[in-house]
Amino acid sequence: MRLQLCTWPEVEAYLKRSTGIIQPIGSTEQHGPTGFIGTDSICPELIAERMGDDLDALVAPTINVGMAQHHLGFPGSASLRPSTLIAVVGDIVKSFARHGFDRFFFINGHGGNIPSLQAAFSEIYAERSFAADGGNRSPVRCEVRNWWQIKSVAAIANEVFGDAEGFHATPSEVALTYYGYPDDAARVKKNKLTPKRAPEGPIYDAEDYRRRFPDGRIGSDPSLASEEIGERLLEAAVEELSRDYRAFLEAD
Ligand code: NI
Q1: Collapsing DSSP states into helix, strand and coil, what is residue 218?
Q2: Among 11, 95, 125, 154, whose Cα sits 20 to 30 Å from the Cα of 208?
Q3: Section 86-106 average pLDDT
């Protein structure tokens, strides 16, 4: 169930049966010549929406822009500073917490978001910790799963792609988006990848990134991506993350 398509009385009724919410978070950044700019948002969104349907869980609007300053050398990329992202996550969680939500299950699609997400959770907990009486706030818990790192997904990526998985614009994430958006996939798939497998190296600022990785990819060969593998990855992620979400809701 997507929050964006609910009415407020439906949300009020949902809160009587669950105080959990799934929050997809991604990024708006280049993914090489054959990957969508929205890849990091599309992947967690596809997983979250399937989980929402299967588990009768509410899915919050995707946080579509993340911490991606190193991608700004490429047209179409957008970034929040770490401090902005921490504030955005805090304000969204506190908005929903005001209504009674207290279990926030983030599904993340972008590595650059991880430190800011952890800092945001610490800021949220600190407000309650510093107030001796709890600050008149109900306890809130936040968890994050980086979908591409979970056991079942990493196992498939390793089996199917091996080293060609690389680090950015990976065949796994590209495959999942191709499965979700086959018509757009047919268009971008035709673009050339030279070299087939991208170089590897460190990440600093935007100019340096573009110099080291001229087409935007790092260490990956996304020409191996297919809709069939995308579907397999989606099924595996939904199954594993659904188990994690249920356990998160049931934990004391
Ligand atoms: Ni990505």
Answers
A1: strand
A2: 154
A3: 97
32 CA → ligand 1 middle, Å: 10
pTM of the complete model: 0.97
Q: In which domain, by residue range, is 50 found? A: 3-250
- Residue 58 contacts residue 107 (beta carbons within 8 Å): no
Query: What's the domain count of the chain?
Result: 1
**Ligand 1 center from residue 33 Cα (angstroms):** 13
Residues 104 and 147: their CA atoms lie apart, in Å, by: 16
Q: Quote the ligand 1 centre to 37 CA distance (angstroms).
A: 9
pLDDT of residue 89: 98
Average pLDDT, the chain: 97
Predicted pLDDT at 226:
98
Tokens describing residue 131 = 């107030």
> Which residues have a Cβ under 8 Å from the Cβ of 237 and sit 6 or more positions away?
47, 147, 150, 152, 153
Residues facing residue 20 across a β-bridge: 103
- Find the 138 Cα to ligand 1 centroid distance in Å: 34
Mean pLDDT value of segment 181-209? 97
- CATH number at 183 reads 3.40.50.10310
Q: In degrees rounded to 5, what are phi and psi of residue 144? A: -130, 140
Q: Is the pLDDT of residue 138 over 80?
A: no
